[in-house]
Design goal:
globular, Rossmann fold, single chain, two-stranded antiparallel ribbon, 9 helices, six-stranded parallel sheet
Amino acid sequence: MATFLVAHGAWSAGWAWKKMRPLMRGAGHELWTPTHTGLGERAHLANPAIDLETHIRDILGVIETEDLRDLVLIGHSYGGMVATGVADRARERIARLVYLDAFVPRDGESVFDLVPAEHQARMRERAQAEGGGWRIPPNPMPPDTAEADVAWAAPRRLPQPLATFETRIRLANPPPPRSYIYCRRSGPGDVFRQFLARARAESGWRVFELDASHNPHITAPQALLAVLQEVAESVLARPG
């Protein structure tokens, strides 16, 4: 059995991994899907001061209070920022760091440093016009998302605190072994292909591609399970 811990994406929360829970349990794995402060069932805590550091501390708190070890830490989308920060501070607890169609920041980078200038400008404009100056309204879900899934997920997707995209991450330690899972059904302005290319060019990565759009935990859970099974097998096969 492997233990997986998710740092979810922007506008999302632990609820978004609902389909994966029985699949992972059925495969014999443990799956933790905490929600970042200010989102999902923790929306009542939303405020302008929430930033990337807040969310890194959220996940570190779960690891520490639940005494989780030998983890496969998954960062989905924006959650790649969170997972990178968590792995930097809890390296001894992380067996493998998995980026699921996610940002892979270097020291000193923010989400806004890793997206085109026009994307940043558009999100800032929407925060001013629709989010009181500090919340970014949700992006649309991928067009291949089933109608029933949109009806389920859309009302639960909440504005993302702007400061989480502005915070520059600070890193001090080498990363654990890493995997990148790239979702090939990318939309216009794909910002994640750059990280696929980086993972292929750098040593120490395992790279996977999924025939899925950006939220495979919703749109292609069985395909995602198959990849996570491969990741788990590599972790469990380690000597010692």
